[in-house]
Design goal:
Order of helices and strands: HHHHHHHHHHHHHHHHHH
CATH class of one domain: Mainly Alpha
Distance between the termini: 128 Å
Helix content: over 70%
Largest sheet: none
Strand content: under 5%
Oligomer: single chain
Shape: globular
C-alpha cells in the first residue's frame, strides 16, 4: 500500500487563500497602527482651533470704534471684554466714560438708563481699585453728568455734584498731574457756578494735556457756561480736531453758533454731525432736531418740518420729537396739524 506524502504546511494553497491571508494581515496591521496613533489621527481629523480672543483685544476694538465715532460699537466691544474679564478695571472705566458721552445722543428716557449704567460701571471699578486716580477722575465725570439727569430731584442733584467734586479731589490727591481729574473738577466747578475757579482749572488741564479731547471739551464747556461763545467754539473745534468723528462735539459747536445767531455756521456743523452718522450707518435723530430748531428760529418752517420728519423716522416713539414737530407746525400757523403732535 502506498502511503501518501506528508503535506507541507508551508505549501501554497492557491491564489484565493493567499489574497485572503494578505488582506487579513493588512487589516491587523492597520488596527495596530490606529491604536498606537489614535491621538495623532484624531488631531489630524479635527479642525484646527482658532485662538480665543482676550479682553485686551476687545478693549482695542472699543478704542477703535470710539475714534471712529461709533460710540455704541465701542460700548458693545467693552461689554464683550467684560464677558471675558468682568473685573477688568481699565475696561470698566473706559466703558463708564463712553456711557456718559453716549447719553448725550439719546432720548431723555434712554439717557437716564445709560447714565445709571455708567454709575454701575464706575462704582464697580472704584470698588476694585479705590486708589486709582484715573478711576476717580472718571467717577467725577459720571456723577457730574448724572446730576443733570432730568429724572432726579433737587436733593439728588446736590448729592451727585458733591460726589463728583469729592471724586475729582481724590483723583488729584492721588495724582496731582492727572489732567483728566483737573478737567473734570473744572466741569464740576462750572456746574456749581464757581466760574472763576472752573476757568483756572480748565486752563491748567489744557496746559498739562493740550492734545486730549476731554481737556479741550471741558475748557470749551466752561467758556460756554460763562457766555463766551466765540472762544467756546474754538475750543470745541480743537477737541474735534483731536477726535474728528465725535458728533456731539459738532452739535456743541453748532449750538454755540446758534447762540451767536450765526445760523448758517450752525447748520454747517449740525449737517457735519448728520453726515458722520450717515457714513457710520448710525440713525441718530439729534443732528436733525438741531437743524430743525435752527430753521425754526430763521422762520423757515417747511425746512424745519422736513428735518423733524427725518428725526422722527429714526426714532418714531420719541415724544420730544413729536413735540418739536408740533411746535414747528404751530409756529407755521398750521394749528390743525400741530394738535396731533402735541397730544
Amino acid at each position: 500500500m502506498r502511503i501518501p506524502k506528508e503535506r507541507s504546511i508551508f505549501k501554497s494553497r492557491g491564489p484565493i487563500f493567499t489574497s485572503l491571508s494578505a488582506a487579513l494581515l493588512a487589516l491587523i496591521m492597520l488596527n495596530l497602527i490606529a491604536l498606537n496613533n489614535k491621538e495623532k489621527i484624531q488631531a489630524f481629523i479635527l479642525p484646527t482651533p482658532f485662538p480665543t480672543r482676550n479682553a485686551n483685544s476687545y478693549l482695542l476694538e472699543g478704542q477703535a470704534f470710539f475714534m471712529a465715532g461709533n460710540l455704541q460699537g465701542a460700548i458693545d466691544a467693552y461689554q464683550d471684554a467684560l464677558d471675558i474679564d468682568p473685573e477688568n478695571v481699565e475696561v470698566l472705566t473706559e466703558l463708564a466714560r463712553l456711557q456718559v458721552y453716549s447719553s448725550k445722543l439719546l432720548t431723555p428716557q434712554n439717557s437716564h438708563v445709560r447714565l445709571v449704567e455708567a454709575m454701575e460701571s464706575i462704582e464697580l471699578a472704584a470698588s476694585l481699585e479705590p486708589d486709582n486716580s484715573h478711576v476717580q477722575a472718571i467717577r467725577a465725570l459720571v456723577y457730574d453728568w448724572n446730576a443733570f439727569d432730568p429724572t432726579i430731584n433737587a436733593e439728588q442733584f446736590e448729592e451727585y455734584l458733591a460726589d463728583a467734586s469729592n471724586a475729582a479731589s481724590l483723583a488729584i490727591q492721588l495724582d496731582n498731574q492727572n489732567a483728566l481729574a483737573i478737567a473734570f473738577r473744572a466741569e464740576v466747578m462750572a456746574d456749581q457756578l464757581r466760574w472763576t475757579q472752573a476757568l483756572q482749572q480748565a486752563e491748567l488741564a489744557v496746559s498739562l494735556e493740550p492734545n486730549l479731547m476731554d481737556t479741550r471739551r471741558v475748557y470749551a464747556y466752561v467758556l460756554e457756561t460763562t457766555g463766551n461763545y466765540s472762544m467756546a467754539i474754538e475750543e470745541y473745534k480743537n477737541a474735534a480736531e483731536i477726535m474728528p468723528n465725535l458728533t456731539f462735539l459738532y452739535i456743541s459747536i453748532g449750538q454755540n453758533y446758534r447762540q451767536l445767531r450765526l445760523y448758517d455756521h450752525a447748520l454747517e456743523f449740525f449737517d457735519k454731525a448728520a453726515t458722520i452718522n450717515k457714513n457710520l450707518g448710525i440713525q441718530d435723530p439729534l443732528p436733525y432736531i438741531a437743524i430743525a430748531k435752527t430753521y425754526t428760529r430763521q422762520g423757515q418752517f417747511f425746512a424745519a418740518a422736513r428735518n423733524a420728519d427725518v428725526a422722527l423716522s429714526f426714532d418714531p416713539t420719541n415724544p420730544d420729537i413729536y413735540g418739536q414737530l408740533g411746535y414747528i407746525q404751530f409756529q407755521a400757523r398750521n394749528f390743525e396739524g400741530s394738535i396731533p403732535m402735541l397730544e
